[in-house]
Structures are given as structure tokens and as C-alpha cells.
Amino acid sequence: MPRTEALPPMERPDTAELVVRYRLINRIALLTAADSVANCAGRNPEMFSMQASPMGDQPNRAERRALAVCAGCPMQALCLVQDMRENGTAFEIRGVRAGLRQVERRALHLELTRQGLR
Questions:
Q1: Which tens digits make up the pLDDT trace of 60-117?
Q2: How far apart are CA 45 and CA 40, in angstroms?
Q3: Do 73 and 41 form a contact (C-beta atoms < 8 A)?
Q4: CA distance 47 to 103
Q5: Predicted structure pTM score
Q6: Is the separation of the CB atoms in 85 and 118 below 8 Å?
Q7: Read out DSSP for 15-48?
Q8: Which residue has the higher pLDDT, 28 or 56?
Q9: What are the phi and psi torsion angles at 29 (to 5°)?
Q10: Measured between alpha carbons, how far is 92 from 52 in angstroms, rounded to an integer?
Q11: Is 77 helix (H, G, I), strand (E, B) or coil?
Q12: Rounded CA separation 20/7 (Å)
């Protein structure tokens, strides 16, 4: 049987913190340098479409791999704003994008809709 190592727990932002972040980055997203390249450019898009773990659980292995690609990406802010604009409902949101898991982006989408910010 292959040996698997435990993944360290990850601190994830709550929905209120994501709303504050979104409001700030929504204002500056279009100022992102046109010559920036996303960390995910050239990668298989399937890497970011995985079975999501529940909200209370730590990210699963596939989510952690995708989150690692997003980490430090210069396009994260633009990616999040684009994701919130492209998805008409929270249930259209899948996988990892903008350094956030599906459950985090769904909760953000619902809260932004509730507050009339999207």
C-alpha cells in the first residue's frame, strides 16, 4: 500500500473577509498590468475542476494542488472579479479559481448578491 503523508491544515478566509477583499479588488482589478501572465496559463484546465470538499473540511489533495498554482498569481484579483461576474448563480461555480475553493466562492457569490454588490 502506498504511503500517504498528511497535508498540513490551511487557514482559509471566512465569507465576511472575502467580501471585504472583493470590494477592494473589484476597484483595482482592471489596473492589473496587461503583460501579467496567470500561473495557470498553459496548464490543463481539468486540474482546477475537481470534486469539492465540504465547507467545514480542509481542502482535499486536488484542491490543494490547484490552490498552490494560484498562490502568488499576479492575476488572482482579476480572476476573482471575472469569476463573480461570469457566474449568474452560485451553483454555477465549480472547482478552484482565484486561489479560492468552490465552497468559498459560492459563499462569496451568495453574500455579494445579498448585499447587492454584484
A1: 999 999 999 999 999 998 899 999 999 999 999 999 999 999 999 999 999 999 999 8
A2: 8
A3: no
A4: 17
A5: 0.77
A6: yes
A7: HHHHHHHHHHHHHHGGGS-TT---TTTTS-GGGG
A8: 56
A9: -60, -40
A10: 13
A11: helix
A12: 29
